[in-house]
Amino acid sequence: MKIVIKLGTHWHRRVLLMLLCCLPFFSPEGLGFTGLSMILGWFKRLQGLTFVALLLYELYYYVKHIPSFRQKQYLKRITMFGLVALMSLLQLFCTRINGGDYETAFQRIYVMMCAYMITEIFIIMDAKMSLEALTYAFTAAAVINLAVVILFYNRMGFREQGDYWLFGQKNAMRNIVVPSITFSAILDRIKKKKYSLRTVFLMLTGVLVLIMVDSGASVAIIALYSALLLYLNISDFELLSLKAFAVIYAVLEVILVFMRRIDIFSGFIEGVLNRDVTLTNRTLIWDRAMQVIRSTPVFGDGLRELQDSKLVIGGFQASHAHNALLDITLKCGLVGAVLLAVIVALCMRQQFKMKNSALGAILGMTLGAFLIAGLVGELWNFGFYLILFTTYYLPEMAKQVELGNAYTKKRRVHIKLHA
Predict the structure, then answer these.
(1) Are strands 164-165 and 168-169 parallel, antiparallel or unpaired?
(2) Which of 10, 223, 263, 320 shows a CA-CA span of 20 to 30 A to 286?
(3) How many folded domains does the chain comprise?
(4) CA–CA separation, 197 vs 408, rounded Å?
(5) Mean of the per-residue pLDDT values for the chain?
């Protein structure tokens, strides 16, 4: 007896993927602050059922293909799935031994595991359909986010209650804005367009929303990212590689966070970003995070709710370290930081192989933008994970949709001689 599991027709798969992608967008805090706390219980149950269904499908796939695991394509999939599963178990372990909050840990595991399973199941099955569905899902989320900010900007006490909106705290909005621009730009390239009105709309409204909610660092990063991506699409010219972004990130990480020579950037911070030289108290949070890390360096302090956080600075508490590297080390120790670094490195390696392709160039710039954003904020979210794991399957995706559509590293000039 042969068991066959199908995800429906092409149209059904597109709708299913859009629904699956929309679920992790909604933060429980955001729903509560927008007056939708009554549905939180049912919403969490739906997230749990989705996670279980995707996990069962994944396990069924791997059990079915055990004889084929020596083949390169299956080995690649089982390697990343194993690393993501190990990272999830590590988060539970670190939370357990340090008396953290299981609900917070499960929410974070759900976001990471769902991003990977959604990417693996759909991208490999039908890349073009998946990229269309991702574009529509993120565009819808961006439009809804814009409408909520405009309609409720001066109502319901958003700014007085920690700047929480429908999709969470104000800085979390870039996790919707950046991927929405990215997937829209990729879809443009697939359809042989330089850029579409949808992409330009997402760029402009994304910057507008972030200005309205006063997310200063996100505005600067996304405005620059949008400008470079727009020029990239118009000119077919590769401006910055992911390797260049990685080097820039590493240098800034060392200088800003660890060497702490903020004064050499004081003019830019105060004049352009309109922030004080502590980057709105971020440097104080970094110092406190490093103190906590020194007390529990191996497995970190676990995942905790805001009220249980040890990041207490001057009478207020922070839920995360406001730096991606410090944050993962704070919560899962050096073991977690190394494991997650391996996952990121494996995904970046796939982009290095395909950096001259249209999809590779766009995804490389997107990962670069996220890395820079990770200097001053939390990085481990659904938007970042989805871009990260999409990059991991970039070669498989390009084979299906790219059809030779590639960027060139330098312009070519063609001269015709007429007799």
Answers:
(1) antiparallel
(2) 223
(3) 1
(4) 25
(5) 79
Alpha helices in 152-195, H assignment, sequence order: 174-190
Q: Which pLDDT band, with edges at 50, 70 and 90, does 269 fall under?
A: low
Indicate the DSSP class of residue 164.
E
Q: Is residue 410 part of a domain?
A: no
pLDDT at 201: 93
| pTM of the full structure | 0.85
User: Rounded CA gap, 275 and 282, in Å?
Assistant: 11
Least Cα distance to 32 among 20, 41, 22, 45 occurs for: 41
Residues 6+ apart with CB under 8 A from 196: 184, 187, 188
User: pLDDT for 186-236, tens place per residue?
Assistant: 998 888 887 889 999 999 999 898 888 877 778 888 888 888 887 776 665
Residue 16, φ and ψ in degrees, nearest 5: -60, -45
Cβ atoms of residues 292 and 301 within 8 Å: yes
| 169 DSSP 8-state letter | E
Task: Supply the pLDDT for residue 413.
Answer: 36
Among residues 349, 71, 179, 28, the alpha carbon closest in space to that of 341 is found at: 349
Query: For residue 325, which of 316, 333, 315 has the smallest C-alpha distance?
Result: 333
Looking at 191-215, list the stretches that DSSP marks H as alpha helix, in order from N- to C-terminal side.
197-212
Cα torsion at 309, 387, 249, 304 (round to 10°)? 10
Considering the domain boundaries, does residue 412 fall inside one? Answer: no
pLDDT digits (tens, 9 = 90+) for 341-356: 999 999 999 998 887 7
DSSP string, 322-390: SSHHHHHHHHHHHHHHHHHHHHHHHHHHHHHHTTTBHHHHHHHHHHHHHHHHTTSS---SHHHHHHHHH
Is 282 in contact with 391 (CB distance < 8 Å)?
A: no
Is 3 contained in some domain?
no
How many whole angstroms separate alpha carbon 325 and alpha carbon 329? 6
Domain boundaries, position 352: 10-401
Report the SS3 class of residue 165.
strand
Higher pLDDT, 161 or 329: 329
Does residue 178 form part of some domain?
A: yes
Tens digit of each residue's pLDDT (9 = 90 or more) over 133-172: 999 999 998 998 888 888 877 764 454 455 677 777 777 7
Residue 71 is given by DSSP the state S
Of 311 and 9, more confident: 311
